[in-house]
Amino acid sequence: MKYIEILAANKDFSKIINSKKYSIGILSNITINSLKDILEYQCFKNGINPSVEIGNYDNIVQDSFIYNNKDLVIIFFDSLSLFENVDHFFESINSDLYDSLFSKCINELNLIFKNLEKTPSVIINSFSSLCFVSSSTKTSKIEKFTYELNTYLQESAPRNFQIVNIDKIFSIFGIEKSVDYRFYHSSKAPYTIDFLKKYVEEIEYVLLKNNGKLKKAIIFDCDNTLWSGILGEDGIDKIDMSISSKTGKYYNMIQRIIVYLSQKGVIIGLCSKNNENDVLEVFKLHKDTYLKEENIVIHKINWSDKASNLLSISQELNIGLDSIIFVDDSSFEINLIREKLPEITTIQVPANLYLYPTILLKTIYKYFNLDVTNDDLKKTSMYKEQFQRAIEKDKFNNIDEYLASLEIEIIIEKNNINQVERLAQLTQKTNQFNLTTKRYTEVQIHNFILNKQFHVFSLSVRDKFGDNGITGLCIINEFEDYTDSILSIDTFLLSCRIIGRNIEYEFLNVILNSFQNKNVKEVRSLYSPSNKNEQVKDFYEKSNFNLISSEIEKKYFLEFDSINRNKISYIRVNFNN
Amino acid sequence: MKYLHERILKVMSLVFEVPIEMLNEESSSDTIGSWDSLKHLNLILALEEEFDIVIPDEEVGNLMNYKLIQIVIEELNN
Fold first, then answer.
1. pLDDT per position as a tens digit, A179-229
2. Fold type of domain A405-576
């Protein structure tokens, strides 16, 4: 974000954020005016209403007495200015001057410590020698001096002082991008806007912590988030979180990070569209799982939408939505949460898996307090109890508005011979949303398409976030019954990544309605249960079919005249009959 | 040209916290009360970022009115 965009955003924020002022004083021996705007922006963004005041130029010690009533004081006791005030080329000074300068700095630091000892929070930067010309093979006097000062700072700063290791920021960001000597020499303003943005990002943790805005819980999806693969389709033996496999090792690291967090008192939860028992079995039985059930405080493993599940997690744990981080690999789920529950911070598993641990760690360091106290260690069991006591609250419903915002479009094609390979693959791989679980080879699908009695419908789905490709199949057997005909649904299946958007109902409606002019008397259908397809056991009931018999398999019929002709308004249908 | 004119005025308006309607081609450090040396520095930083330029050291101190700012930006963009 550009500096003027920050200025413009601050203007808007200051009109809408009216919470109690959080007062910040900036004390410095350099010119650092634009830090005020950038800091204000970072506060506003986190719902903090800042009141930032900059002290007099090069007046840190005196100002530390005036500004000690602030909520937060930030000190730029900068070595650039410090060494420039010595009227010598520093490398050539004698030891007397060195010692007297050192003791002057120590005395100033001590005064600052004392003046600010009652201030709730103080941020002070470490002293840096990186702004000065140096050589990697020589130790300069400046380096020695800053090293000694830093040691003193570390050992003597009061507990309310947070030391920012400014060399870390320099080394991540690059000294040339951080310091603009032009403005240092003309205005004593060494730092670039980009550096100041980076600096403020680095101290965001302190701002959040001081304002009670750190996170308490992190909730994970399961498939392709805690392990590689889809449990419901690949099975427990095929999902991968092994330290010695190419993709599994990243998930193994993720699980180790999660266990570490749980030991630090962070609440760990799961929110996954899966069968509950299947997932819990993974944590009990899978040979590579590092994460165990005892690390998990709360889980919502079901087929409801994740916004409802996360909302009930927040209610059951009695924590705010803004205390929750949610991690998922699916852009559909991430966008659902961003739109429905924007208070929740989301992390999407990156397509480049090797970045996944880095992204997770960066977020964790920013949002969680990982300094351990004994109380924190007790938290996991405390929340677990609270969870057990909690009563299931009402479902958070009506996600229609969200679904409408997705601009879902389905493309239905009939008897397309070019799709044989993918359609056969769908019958072989789809377990969860599959009414009859009949497996077909390519030849069989090919024969259905050539046979006039069968109708093969494929479904492709796309929305504004992307194209899911061919993800559904319906095979209809049309046979004569005297003068009329009867439709029998041989196969009806959808890949589970498009479930939860009512696409299945629209798919079926469009297909059945396409037989409107063909003297169809009735439609027959079948649900045959498998180990994996429990979630669709009521699909035909929900589609207004009448149950005829329900031994082992459930058989249904539907008079053709009574099929549902109502379109689902938010799904655009593209059907070439 | 008009576009450049508006962009400069927008930067000035945000940095000096003056409504954009109050600014024009005659605006200078004499007509804008909040244009002090600290704000001047912020103005330079904002202009450099907005127009993706580096204003030479010797020019920095001269840019005390709208017209000079426009001239320098046009030169640097060529």
1. 998 888 888 899 999 999 999 999 999 999 888 889 999 999 999 999 999
2. Aminopeptidase (3.40.630)
Name the pLDDT band for B57 (thresholds 50, 70, 90): confident
> How far is B66 from chain A, CA to nearest CA, in Å?
17
Read off the pLDDT of each residue in A357-377 and give the average, rounded to a whole number. 80
Domain with CATH 3.40.50.1000 in chain A: 217-397
A130 CA: distance to closest CA in chain B (Å): 23
Contacts of A509 (CB under 8 A, 6+ apart): A563, A564, A565, A566, A567, A568
Q: Would you state the structure tokens that stand for residue A41, as one six-digit string?
A: 């922006």
- Domains in chain B and their CATH numbers? 2-77 (1.10.1200.10)
Q: Which residue has the higher pLDDT, A223 or A577?
A: A223
Q: Cα separation of A475 and A440, whole Å?
A: 11
Measured between CB atoms, does A102 come within 8 Å of chain B?
no
Q: How far, in Å, CA of A214 to CA of A350, rounded? A: 24
- Tell if the pTM clears 0.90, that is, is over it: no
- The interface predicted TM-score (ipTM) is 0.86
Joined together, the tokens standing for residue A340 give 């429905």
The CATH architecture one would assign to domain A3-210 is 3-Layer(aba) Sandwich (3.40)
Q: List the A49-54 sheet strands across, edge first.
A: A49-54, A21-28, A72-76, A121-125, A161-164
Quick check: A187 and B11 CB within 8 A? no
Return the residue in B8, B41, B43, B62 with the most chain A beta carbons within 10 A, the one to mutate for interface testing.
B41
Interface residue A575 vs chain B (CB under 8 A): no
Instruction: Tell me what the mean pLDDT of segment A150-158 comes to.
Output: 91
CATH superfamily, with its number, for domain A217-397: HAD superfamily/HAD-like (3.40.50.1000)
Residue pair A295/A398 in contact by the 8 Å Cβ criterion: no
Work out the pLDDT band at A395, boundaries 50, 70, 90.
very low
Q: Is A34 on the interface with B (CB under 8 A)?
A: yes
Q: How far apart are CA A500 and CA A494, in angstroms?
A: 11
- Numbered ranges of CATH 3.40.50.1110 in chain A: 3-210
**Residue of chain B nearest A3, judged by CA positions:** B46
Nearest neighbour of A4 by CB, restricted to B11, B37, B39: B11
